[in-house]
From TrEMBL:
Stretches with biased composition (Polar residues): 332-362
Gene3D superfamilies to which the protein is assigned, alphabetical: Band 7 domain (3.30.479.30)
InterPro entries named in the record: Band7/mec-2_domain, Band_7, Band_7/SPFH_dom_sf, HflK, Membrane_HflK_N, Stomatin_HflK_fam
Listed GO biological process terms: proteolysis
Keywords assigned: Hydrolase, Membrane, Protease, Transmembrane, Transmembrane helix
Protein name, entry field: Protein HflK
Family in the record: Belongs to the band 7/mec-2 family. HflK subfamily.
Source species of the chain: Ferrimonas lipolytica
Annotated region described as Disordered, given as residue ranges: 1-26, 332-368
Length: 368
């Protein structure tokens, strides 16, 4: 039952017994009772005021306590106007006089821009790009522009549409993506420079570029064909890099062999010249003998490279000497006449040709 309902004879909140008086108690009487409890008297009013003032000052001081993180800087406004920029740590500001706005200057912030855009060759392409930026000047970031993030987003969209409008669709989708990214970055820096927003663009990332869904299969085929072309070019380049060193090695080897052959021929010619210079005095002393000896030595060199010898006798018959079989130890009867001739002539030729040439030459030299 509530304290003020009929029939309630309990105590009400104001200390009225019986429930007859519904009004609140007198404040002066409350303070007087409170002072009497503490043995006060007339001095309670002054002490109470002091305590209230001290408590108010403490609360006022604590309400002005603030903290700036390590990655932040605090922008202080005094009566609504810029006053200073404070560093990290704890600080105390006068409440209702100063306001401190912390600004993170180390965090990398990100903004995206995307949409359908018209290219230079009048095609429509969907492009998405992301800008990453950092706050360098907290004061300019807060007060030079009303909404710096929105301003930067609109500047990015404007720069991206300008660059895409001056680029063909093939370059945007394939090989020209890096150039589009760099051009967009430069254009964005040029747009935001007059605003002096206190931010610095860290990077511009090309997130996505694709044709509209209606023509996407055709563009996928074109991209696949371009990738095949690049793959073939790379394979041909790898093959040329493999074959070219081999060809260079072969050419170098042929040049070395030709140079070695030239040197050998020169040395052999010089040896022949030296040999003929040595034979010249002997030829002058005995021309006929020297000439015959040279002839026999030359014929010996010629016949040493063949296994067949043709001998012509005085009767006009031509005989064949199988020297290869004679060397192998077969019978001399294998000598076959090329034409019919008397057997006495055959025996004479065999006995004559079977004598070593060197012996005959040495015998003639001894006789001479």
């Amino acid at each position: 039952m509530a304290w003020n309902e009929p029939g309630n004879q309990g105590k009400d909140p104001w200390g009225n017994r019986g429930g007859k008086d519904q009004g609140p108690p007198d404040l002066d009487e409350v303070f007087r009772k409170f002072s009497n409890r503490f043995g006060g008297g007339g001095n309670f009013s002054g002490i109470g005021v002091v305590l209230v003032l001290v408590g108010a000052l403490i609360v006022y001081g604590l309400s002005g306590l603030y903290k700036i993180e390590e990655a932040e800087r605090g922008v202080v406004l005094r009566f609504g106007q810029f006053h200073s920029v404070v560093g990290p740590g704890l600080g105390l500001r006068p409440t209702f006089v100063d306001k401190v706005y912390p600004v993170n200057i180390q965090r990398v912030n990100r903004l995206n821009a995307s949409g359908l855009m018209l290219t230079k060759d009048e095609n429509v392409v969907t492009v998405q790009m992301e800008v990453q930026y950092r706050i360098e000047d907290p004061r300019k970031y807060l007060f030079n522009v009303t909404d710096p993030d929105q301003t930067l987003s609109e500047a990015l969209d404007s720069a991206l549409r300008y660059v895409v409008g001056h680029t063909t669709m093939d370059n945007i989708l394939t090989v020209g993506r890096e150039q589009v990214r760099q051009d967009t970055w430069e254009e964005l820096d040029g747009i935001i420079a007059p605003y002096d927003m206190g931010i610095r663009v860290v990077d511009v990332a090309f997130k996505e570029a694709r044709p509209p869904e209606e023509v996407k299969p055709a563009f996928d085929d074109a991209i696949a064909a371009r990738e095949d072309e690049e793959r073939y070019v790379q394979e041909a380049t790898a093959y040329s890099r493999q074959v070219e060193p081999q060809a260079r090695g072969q050419a170098e080897r042929m040049l070395k062999e030709a140079d070695a052959y030239r040197q050998r021929m020169v040395l052999e010619a010089e040896g022949e010249v030296a040999r003929f210079n040595q034979l010249l005095p002997q030829y002058e002393a005995a021309p006929v003998v020297t000439r015959e000896r040279l002839y026999l030595e030359t014929m010996e060199q010629v016949y040493s490279n063949t296994s067949k010898v043709m001998v012509e006798n005085d009767g006009g018959s031509m005989f064949y000497l199988p020297l290869d079989k004679i060397i192998q130890g077969q019978s001399p009867a294998s000598v076959q006449p090329m034409q019919n001739a008397p057997s006495s002539q055959n025996r004479a030729i065999r006995s004559t040709t079977s004598e070593p040439i060197n012996n005959r030459v040495s015998g003639r030299q001894g006789r001479n």
